[in-house]
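Shipment paperwork, digital attachment
Item: protein structure file
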Amino acid sequence: MFSAATVAIVAIIVVSVLYAAVRLLREYERGVVFTLGRYTGTKGPGLILLVPFAQQMVRVDLRVVVDEVPPQDVISRDNVSVKVNAVIYFRVVDAERAIIQVNNYLAATSQLAQTTLRWVLGKHDLDSMLAERDKLNADIQDVLDKQTEAWGIKVSNVEIKRIDLNENMVRAIARQAEAERTRRAKIINAEGEQQAAQKLVDAARILEPVPQAMQLRYLATLFDIASERSSTIVFPFPIDLMKHL
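Attachment content:
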């Protein structure tokens, strides 16, 4: 009969062997297997059996990772200093390369996103940053996707969250917007005066051949003025008399 100590030792050994040999991978996980330190394949999902003490496995999550890029100091092409932060969405498409080609693919992708954000935005002026975010998002995503392809990473989306300006720049932009609205108002007013003058010229050309029509229009104007309750006194002055003067 085996002693209780022997049975306990055997049980511990069996549990240790099973713990080292059996792995269970979820649907969204893959296992990169190394045999005596050499890569021998990618397994999963499901139940995985390993050779104890000879094989090791590294789990890789294939789900989309959401990484928030911390605020970055960016100097635009027109020498404006802003703080920009963004969010990147990426996932592992090749578990082998994500483990073998880079030490820590999460940290590497995050650091690369920060430098790429500063580099891409630094090539544009402030107006482009504020008005063309979709284009900037696409440019950053394209650069990141090409550089992380060697790591087995696919960058699916990049979104610029916020562009922070200092107070002086905010006031300058407000003054610029106010000046632009004033300019548009003056242009609209001038165009209205031009159109009104053109209509008056057209009306004068129509009334000129018939003096009686001009006189009737003159009397109609006097009637409109007289109908208003005002203390203003109107003295009709013949137009023909002005020609003699």
